[in-house]
Amino acid sequence: MPRSCGSVQNYFRQVDFYPDLRRNQAVLEGMTIASARQGRRDQAQLPAEIPVVVHILYRTDADNLTDEQVASQIDVLNEDYAATNEDVKNVPPIFVDRIGNPGLRFVLATADPSGSPTTGITRRKVTVASFAVNDRMKAEATGGADAWDTTRYLNIWVCRIEGDVLGYAQFPGGPPAPDGVVIFRRVIPVVGVPEGSVVASAKRRPGLPTRSTKIGGTFLMSSLVPAKSSFSTSTWEATCSSERLSVSAR
To answer: Would you kindly state where each structural domain of the chain is located, as residue ranges?
Structure first.
């Protein structure tokens, strides 16, 4: 079954109304390349913890994720980024020398922007059946939920998305207000068990793009998987349109 990532679609949408995007992106990429060439990394400060807030937008009770489901996704996300996930052994040989640990650890926020205690999870019952790739889920005024300070939190919105889009991330250098990741509710496991997590590999969760990939889009990581792919249980075959894109994702 064809699956779609909306990140490239969102990128070109933002280019149309946010002219600084391409310039900001070039600056960030230049800084990243320079840092990589210097090879500097202060191990004493790692892992760097990233506070996460998950905004759950649900129309029916079935779409209202439990705290356990959310926590399981964070657990497997950390496995993937630390390269401690069981199926890391299935990485194709050509990419084995690229396996690494960026020194990031994701944790559900314990304090909200005002300093009050929080579970790192917000919930809002919505009236719309699904959202499009247009960031309307990222603001209460447009039927969604407002982002928490995007300079202090990684914002994740879980909702229903139109079409075959299973999620999308904002590329670097875009407008600060909507910065974050959107995940289709359907790809979150019904039971909060990491083995069935969307952030696992395609073999552990056949046919689904990973949350790890979407979040990688916020950290200057370009995806090697085309925007449209079809997966089978044991292997995956990618199918692309004739349009060739040259977009560096963060």
So the answer is: 3-23+47-89+100-238
Give residue 219's pLDDT.
55
Would you state the structure tokens that stand for residue 9, as one six-digit string? 């679609």
Least confident span in 92-101, 114-123, 147-156, 222-231: 222-231
Rounded to whole angstroms, the Cα distance separating 184 from 40 reads 37
How far, in Å, CA of 131 to CA of 163, rounded?
9
Architecture per CATH, 3-23+47-89+100-238: 3-Layer(aba) Sandwich (3.40)
Between CA 212 and CA 199 the distance in angstroms is 5
Residues 165-190: tens digit of each pLDDT: 888 888 888 888 899 999 998 777 65
How far the first Cα of the chain sits from its last, in Å, is 27
User: Partners of 4 in the beta sheet?
Assistant: 165, 228
Q: For 38-68, write each residue's pLDDT tens digit.
A: 875 555 577 889 999 999 999 999 999 999 9
Question: How far apart are alpha carbons 94 and 61 in whole angstroms?
Answer: 44
Residues across the chain:
250
Q: Which residues of 30-56 are buried (b: 16+ CB within 10 A; e: fewer)?
A: eeeeeeeeeeeeeeeeeeeebbbbbbb
Taking the model in full, what pTM does it have? 0.74
Is-cis flag, bond preceding 113, omega within 30? no
